[in-house]
Amino acid sequence: MLSRRLGLKHIELDEYHWLPGWKERGSDEFAALVMQETRSDNWVIDGNYDKLSKYLTCNPDLMIWLNYPLWIVIWRCIKRTIWRISSREHVCNGNRESLRQQFTKDGSMLYWVITTYRRRRHQLEEHKLAGHNIMEIKHPKDVNDLADKVARLFEVRLYDVDNPEQ
Q1: Residue 97 in 3-state DSSP?
Q2: 139 with 68: CB under 8 angstroms?
Q3: What backbone torsions phi and psi does residue 113 show, to the nearest 5 degrees?
């Protein structure tokens, strides 16, 4: 995980957005929680929620955008969903994905991926036009040296996640 390798605070947006029982937190409260977390310097946000854009005033030094081909995103979504259902893994705030949920418009990750894919690409272009500093990752193999690139860019020390005693 990039935040651990860089020794930075990790902010997972799904943890702030989803309440137990897959209830959505209200936009104002969600934004307030995220703004509180981003007041300090040096953090990594994991996620992308349109509803935050009108609230957040922070201008990150770097946006890392995973812009994989649709077939990779779909394949990874299917694998992750099957794993989470079969292992009964908790995802955010104690929630679990279910097989039944995957057959509903509001609960299916695959449906979400397919219906938001173009919009996410459009968002990327908007950020580029706005002049944001973006590191675009187009294939999973390009992630391997991501932490090294970011560390060099910001001159930070990398942490060995397998050796917490460094």
Answers
A1: coil
A2: yes
A3: -60, -50
Q: What is the tens place of the pLDDT at every residue in 108-142? A: 889 989 998 999 899 888 888 888 888 888 888 88
Rounded to a whole number, what is the largest CA-CA distance in the chain?
47
In single-letter form, the type of residue at position 61 comes to D
- Token output for 14: 């799904």
Domain borders along the chain are: 2-154
**Which pLDDT belongs to residue 155?**
65
Enclosing H/E stretch for 11:
strand 9-12
Residue 58 binned pLDDT confidence (cut-offs 50, 70, 90): low
Architecture of the domain defined by 2-154 = 3-Layer(aba) Sandwich (3.40)
Residue 165: pLDDT above 70? Answer: no
Q: How many CB atoms lie within 10 A of CB 40?
A: 8
